[in-house]
Here is the input.
Amino acid sequence: MIAVLDACVLYPTVMRQIILGCAERGLFTALWSERLLEEWTRAAARNGGARDEQIARAEAASANVRFPTALAEQGDEAPLWLPDPGDIHVLATAIKSRADTIITLNLRDFPARELSSHGLKALPPDGVLMALWLKNPDAVTQAVTQTHTEAERLSGQTLPLRALLKRARLPRLGKALST
Here is the structure.
């Protein structure tokens, strides 16, 4: 799977770290554009202020270093249509980079009928991670464990895994890993 990661998947941190951890383990190829990275940093600034924006910019730069082939060119938006014009750049990036998937929380903004003509589908992160876990349980579990450990270290608290993943909008994965 070659997947463009929508900005809503890059921010928040726990979801991003798990998804990138899976990509790092070779479970799929992750792609993004400069504009998607900018949307991520703007969301961080909007929700957490200047300090969070600085952290997001540093993490985006780090992601580009960790995944040197992930930065994709944005394609031509002019001939494309989506219900939310603000998401057309995501579709244009996916087409230009020959991705087969857009991972997003905003499925309504990426209707199947619009994407299928371009050989694309939009999938939610929880569904993608569950499918990856069913095929590669050890690798996904490692990515989750690494993220969970880091979240506990940063918070200085014990964080129940299922609750952490539920807050990260990954409830199915949380349930699967907590049973």
